[in-house]
Design goal:
The complex is a heterodimer of chains A (about 450) and B (about 120).
Chain A lengths: L6 E7 L9 H11 L3 E5 L4 H13 L9 H15 L3 E3 L6 H14 L7 E5 L13 E2 L13 E6 L4 H8 L4 E3 L7 H11 L6 H14 L27 E5 L5 E5 L9 H8 L9 E2 L4 E3 L4 E4 L5 E4 L2 E3 L4 E21 L3 H19 L4 E7 L21 E10 L2 H12 L1 H4 L5 E19 L6 E4 L1
Parallel strand pairs in A: 1-2, 2-3, 3-7, 4-7
Antiparallel strand pairs in A: 1-8, 4-19, 5-18, 6-15, 8-9, 9-13, 10-11, 11-14, 12-13, 15-17, 15-18, 16-17
Chain B lengths: L1 E3 L4 E8 L2 E8 L5 H7 L2 H8 L6 E7 L4 E7 L19 H5 L3 E3 L2 H4 L2 H4 L6
Classes of the chains: A alpha+beta (about 450), B alpha+beta (about 120).
Chain lengths: ~450, ~120
């Protein structure tokens, strides 16, 4: 066993839209531990990145994580003073602009200018040739003819992050990198793990996989009252992995925070978005979790060991986003005696109106409170539903053009006068969707690198 | 006696494109054989056939007392295209937990004990 102490790898956000006050207790715990550490931010879903590309085209200073200032501002001074690097994919479609904003944040707080590295090479929008690239296996059905390309980004690995940290970066801003690489980069840099030491790369990747969704390993997305209870869910502490040189690690959270860490929270998150447990593919390594074992190590501490690594896949995954269709939703409520029958009549009336007007949309109807998310995709409402005191009728429609979608929603509004008795609370919204398809790209088409901002 | 799977296991759902995965985890090692033997690919496929699921693959993780189900084409195209309220399919873990399982009568009265805090 190594004589070196553990590295405290914390996570401050698990998606764009996460609790912005979460990083503070993570940094407090790392700084007061007296141990080396780093904090990662994962804020970049597939659609978030595409929206970033659209925003950047409208304004060259936009296109990075909109909550950057709220997430990083409160911890910036402490991280820089305590030597805790910040690594985040909050650069999204515009890491350069994110780096400029971070320098401003430091200046506004009277801090010396931080050394900020930018990881580049993920944006392959201008170089990808979709006619020759291979579509990721389960996404073949998502392809559409003549779709307008928005952006293409390859998933980079941990290496440019580690190299940037070894070159002295205090903040590493990335666009698209594999989520677990945000943890593996700082770990590999700190311990000097070799890029062919597959079991250690696998261990660091598993730690990153457990951290990447933030609170989902510390009691978020977990509570089931009376079965799996979570203390103080409004104050869930975000996770910290205490990682040892040999790859063993403990998942824990800051003292005094809400939430919980136990074998159940960790097991759920190990398998989250996992397909074949023997082959979880990242740009860095193929992770095999079939030999992973967990052990309790006191309250809110779980030891994780046994990750195995195999060679990384020869291709990199790339997310390609296209302009999608229009989706509209409208709802109206019926309550009290015979509410379900009136709601069913409203739904049938909407369906008849759309048919009568021959609107070119795909449609679905829900009876929320009775039958909704578990219904079939045609929304046939055929299953039995118990009568309920309040039913909300929902119409969802999609189409290539905006106008027929708007016209469909207008039929729900019209029920206020023309529909069953007592219909109220009509609301509607319409938005343009982005379509994303995963491709597999040969590694020699992608050139990962870092530069100082 | 028959109980809901929810009494002996917990679950989590995730999505990638049009592919859904649902983990099913026994609350206790003593409950694992019932989960392993009764929550089959075919039964899970039946739960998602009305959504168009084309294939279900089950992985066993005995050291984690867990199963992982990978369900193809059950998300109406996923966040790209779905008209379902739950475009990610996150609520589907509880669809699986609604399955019925048979537990020995001798254990049935003690299921809450098996579900207690696992910190040992």
């Amino acid at each position: 066993m190594s004589q070196r102490g553990p590295f405290m790898m914390g996570c401050g956000a698990g998606f764009s839209g996460d609790r912005v006050d979460a990083p503070v207790s993570v940094i407090e715990a790392i700084a007061t531990s007296g141990r080396p550490g780093a904090i990662m931010f994962e804020t970049l879903a597939e659609r978030t990145l595409a929206l970033g590309h659209v925003a950047r085209r409208l304004d060259p200073e936009h296109g990075y994580e909109p909550l950057l200032e709220e997430l990083v501002g409160p911890i910036l001074a402490r991280c820089l003073r305590s030597g805790i690097p910040i690594v985040g994919n909050f650069g999204a479609a515009n890491p350069q602009a994110a780096a400029r904003r971070l320098k401003q944040l430091a200046a506004e707080r009277g801090l010396p200018e931080p050394r900020i590295a930018i990881v580049e090479g993920d944006d392959i929008t201008d170089s990808i040739d979709l006619s020759t690239e291979q579509v990721f296996e389960s996404d073949a059905g998502l392809l559409r003819e003549n779709a307008t390309l928005i952006a293409a980004n390859a998933y980079l690995g941990a290496r440019p992050i580690a190299e940037a940290l070894l070159a002295g970066a205090e903040i590493v801003v990335t666009g698209r990198v594999a989520d677990p690489s945000l943890a593996l980069g700082p770990l590999a840099a700190h311990f000097g793990w070799a890029w062919d030491d597959l079991d250690r790369l696998a261990a660091g990747t598993l730690a990153g996989h457990l951290l990447e969704c933030g609170s989902q390993v510390t009691g978020g997305y977990f509570a089931d009252p009376g079965f799996k209870d979570v203390p103080r869910p409004a104050e869930i502490g975000f996770p910290i992995a205490e990682v040892w040189e040999d790859g063993r690690f403990v998942i824990t959270k800051a003292p005094g925070t809400g939430g919980r860490v136990d074998k159940r929270t960790v097991t759920e998150q190990i398998l989250y978005e996992m397909h074949d447990p023997a082959a979880y593919l990242t740009p860095d390594v193929t992770l095999d979790i079939t030999g992973v074992s967990l052990a309790s190590d006191g309250p809110d501490r779980v030891v994780v060991q046994g990750a195995r690594g195999h060679a990384a896949p020869p291709t990199l995954k790339a997310t390609v986003s296209f302009e999608g269709d229009w989706i509209g939703e409208a709802e109206i409520s019926y309550a009290g005696p015979n509410a379900l029958a009136r709601a069913r009549l409203a739904a049938a009336t909407i369906a008849d109106r759309l048919t009568l007007r021959q609107l070119p949309v795909k449609r679905r109807l829900d009876l929320i409170g009775a039958l909704s998310v578990f219904d079939d995709d045609a929304g046939t409402l055929a299953a039995d539903a118990p009568d309920a005191p309040e039913i909300r009728v929902r119409l969802a429609v999609s189409g290539q053009d905006r106008r027929p979608v708007e016209q469909s929603l207008q039929e729900v509004l019209a029920l206020l006068c023309c529909g069953p008795a007592g219909g109220g609370g009509q609301r509607q919204q319409i938005r343009n969707r982005i379509r994303t398809v995963s491709y597999l790209v040969p590694r020699d088409r992608v050139a990962p690198r870092f530069v100082f901002a | 006696m028959k109980v809901a799977l929810h009494e002996i296991a917990h679950a989590r759902a995730g999505d990638k494109g049009n592919r859904l995965n649902v983990s099913v985890i026994a609350y206790h090692a003593d409950l694992w054989p019932m989960v392993r033997d009764q929550v089959t690919e075919a039964r899970v496929h039946d739960l998602f056939r009305h959504r168009g699921a084309t294939q279900v693959k089950r992985y066993e993780l005995p050291t984690l007392i867990a199963l992982n189900f990978v369900i193809d084409d059950a998300l109406e195209g996923g966040v790209n295209a779905s008209l379902n309220l739950d475009i990610h399919g996150k609520s589907n873990s509880f669809r699986v937990l609604g399955l019925e399982v048979e537990v020995p009568d001798a254990m049935a009265g003690r299921l809450a004990v098996y579900r207690r805090d696992p910190s040992d």
